[in-house]
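Project standup — Tuesday

K.O.: blocked on the structure for the chain from last sprint. Re-posting the sequence here as requested.
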Amino acid sequence: MKPIYHDVVISFGDTLAQQADFAELTQFYDQAQVSHWLAHLLTYLQAQPNAWVHDDLLALDLPYELSLYITEPIEARALNLAYRGKDYATNILSYPADLPAEVAGQLPQVPLGELVICHAVVAKQAAEQGKPLAAHVTHLMVHGMLHLLGFDHELGQAEQDEMERIEIAVLADLGVANPYELP
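H.V.: unblocked you, prediction finished:
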């Protein structure tokens, strides 16, 4: 199998781009880094005998496309309320493309969907949990990517356990400690 490079499109909310610490913020959402995380996750899932979600998409020998939008708490809250009925700013939202493999296979890239991350919420959580911010960002990105691939921890304990197992394994490969263990 030839190496596959994945396309990651990153955009920032208008108000974030105007902040004094914008350059610092962008270091956490680097296109090459996000593509690297995605490649590690896909490689891990492709090696699993029972990667039970979207096996058909994982079998495609095509690059994947991921959109990432970084926003602020007001917009994150509005999106969370509009699409999940939850009235608070959340850390990450996932909007899967959900294309059938027969359609995705006809495209030059397989669109996975869009992740919307609220960096302020992520930074606050990392501080409260005593975790390095970079590690928390990496964890949430892998978590969101799993949602784009069809995994859903809200379906029950078995699904939650499976997602956590995958996250822990992929993060360990990336040099990130188990996010479910307290520091």
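K.O.: great, moving the ticket to review. The radius of gyration is 16 Å. Residues 157-173 form the longest helix (17 residues).
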